[in-house]
């Protein structure tokens, strides 16, 4: 039942990206693997890194995939980018990237494809400037929540707070301020022209409002 509910939480257009991405790579779509990922995003410890987040990412991908050099690889990287999410761990991206690479290798993908998808998932650590248009698009999509409407951004902040409720407020609040300030200090938050035009100003307003509240 949980798996069925997970399937229904992703819109049909989002689910279609799974099949179309594998077919574009001339590989057989693995429905069982897709269901494993959907179940992972539905894990109870998640509040933001959930099926809702995945669905929102896939929506943005549907709108912006023309910005990608290799759309199928970006789509699969989105499906896997939060596949592993342990709030107490610091290697979630690496484990998610390894899962993606292993799944592609098992399916018979070109090793270069598997390596590129691995690199795309690793880019979601947000530690370095994205390398190339596909990584730029992926990161812009992952950060699209920052430019969400005010109500959705407020919900996102509550979801992040719930995921880190185990961290004492005296530690959590200054850490959160540091993260938000790091985003505000960037010359630009979004690197793809369409997403920059749509989200840059709303994101900066959301971040500034959040920083003021944390103060």
UniProtKB/TrEMBL annotation:
Superkingdom, taxonomy of origin: Bacteria
InterPro entries: HD_phosphohydro
Cited PANTHER family: HD PHOSPHOHYDROLASE FAMILY PROTEIN-RELATED, PTHR21174
Protein name as annotated: Metal-dependent HD superfamily phosphohydrolase
């Amino acid at each position: 039942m949980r798996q069925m509910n997970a399937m229904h939480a992703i819109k049909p257009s989002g689910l279609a990206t799974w099949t179309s991405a594998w077919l574009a790579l001339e590989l057989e779509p693995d429905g069982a693997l897709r269901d494993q990922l959907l179940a992972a995003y539905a894990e109870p410890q998640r509040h933001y890194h959930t099926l809702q987040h995945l669905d929102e990412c896939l929506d943005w991908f549907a709108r912006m995939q023309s910005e990608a050099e290799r759309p199928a690889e970006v789509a699969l990287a989105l499906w896997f980018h939060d596949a592993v999410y342990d709030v107490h761990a610091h290697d979630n991206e690496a484990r998610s990237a390894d899962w993606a690479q292993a799944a592609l290798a098992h399916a018979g993908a070109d090793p270069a494809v598997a390596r590129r998808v691995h690199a795309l998932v690793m880019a979601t650590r947000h530690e370095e400037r994205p390398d190339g248009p596909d990584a730029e698009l992926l990161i812009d999509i992952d950060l699209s929540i920052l430019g969400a409407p005010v109500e959705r951004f407020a919900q996102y902040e509550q979801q992040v707070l719930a995921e880190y409720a185990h961290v004492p407020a005296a530690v959590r609040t200054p850490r959160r301020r540091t993260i938000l300030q790091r985003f505000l200090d960037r010359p630009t938050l979004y690197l793809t022209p369409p997403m920059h035009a749509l989200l840059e100003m709303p994101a900066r307003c959301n971040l500034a409002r959040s920083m003021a509240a944390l103060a």
